[in-house]
Specification:
- Helix 3 (116-132) runs parallel beside helix 4 (149-161).
- With 262 residues, the protein is an alpha/beta fold.
- 29% of the residues are buried.
- The chain has helices spanning 37-46, 62-73, 116-132, 149-161, 187-191, 204-218, 256-261; strands spanning 2-9, 27-35, 53-59, 77-84, 92-98, 101-102, 106-108, 135-140, 166-171, 182-186, 222-225, 231-235, 238-242.
- It starts with a strand and ends with a helix.
- The mean pLDDT is 90.
- The longest helix has 17 residues, at 116-132.
């Protein structure tokens, strides 16, 4: 789970700092929204999903408090959510904007290993959710201490113990270790699935064949996203090319993968 912070900077001539002589950037407006797994939560809520439960972590910093406020606004059950004290910090992507142009991004947040007690409680919450939920989504976009080989092994055991639950995995770095799950992959992740060199240059036929091979390996449906080329869906009945929708105008593509997952 992460937080997206948008800081709108004034385009007027900035004053100079008395202390440093450097230009001061005045923030005229600030907006915050859930990112990563949190963006999945926002989209599930928008689609009318009846009950949403979150299992993850944030820090006790102001960004963490804002994240919890966002969860409350979406009516999410966050009893399986751990608020960790320092040195852990909430994961934040801070994006200063000059007009419609994004300036250099600032990333906040700890990426170290989680305490063993926290891992154990998160796995227990995950197991409880797997027994009671219709669908469980695992999303991993950041290399942190959360998805160690030991944790992945324990999660796979839970997946195997709950064959009636649908598990969906959106994993940027480790799609293959999860078994018994529907996979959502982009072209780079999918092309490296079998150990080949990752690429984003796939023809329609190539993307369809790759999705078919992955679905045959996992025995579960596969959703392969292709940016402006749309998406390929593959399962035991075959493959289907889903064409993109041109909404016109300028579109912020951040979070598109989360939206597909939801």
């Amino acid at each position: 789970f992460s937080l997206d912070a948008y800081w709108d900077l004034s385009q007027e001539l900035a004053e100079l700092s008395v202390e440093t002589g450097l230009a001061v950037h005045k923030v005229e407006g600030q907006r915050y929204s859930l990112g990563g797994a949190g963006n999945v939560v926002a989209n599930l809520h928008a689609m009318g999903v009846r009950a949403i439960r979150v299992v993850g972590v944030c820090g006790t910093d102001p960004f963490g408090r804002r994240m919890l406020e966002e969860f409350k606004a979406y009516g999410a059950d966050f009893r399986g959510f751990e608020v960790l004290p320092a040195p852990w910090e909430t994961l934040v992507y801070a994006k200063p904007y000059l007009g419609n142009v994004e300036e250099q991004r600032l990333d906040f947040g700890s990426c170290g290993p989680l305490p063993e007690s926290t891992v154990n409680s998160l796995v227990a919450s995950f197991a409880e959710a797997a027994r009671s939920a219709d669908v469980v989504i695992i999303t991993q976009q950041i290399k942190t201490g959360m998805f160690t080989s030991q944790v992945v092994s324990r999660l796979n055991e839970i997946l195997a113990e709950n064959p009636e639950t649908v598990f969906v995995v959106d994993s940027r770095d480790m799609s293959t270790p999860f078994r018994d799950a529907v996979l959502k992959l982009n072209t780079r992740e999918a092309s490296g699935f079998f150990g080949d060199e990752a690429t984003e240059d796939l023809t329609d036929a190539g993307a369809a064949e790759l999705a078919r091979r992955i679905a045959a390996r996992t025995a579960r449906p596969v959703f392969l996203t292709r940016g402006q080329s749309g998406m390929v869906v593959a399962d035991s009945t075959g493959t289907k090319l889903v064409l993109p929708v041109d909404v016109g105008g300028c579109v912020d593509a951040v979070g598109a993968g989360d939206t597909v997952t939801a």
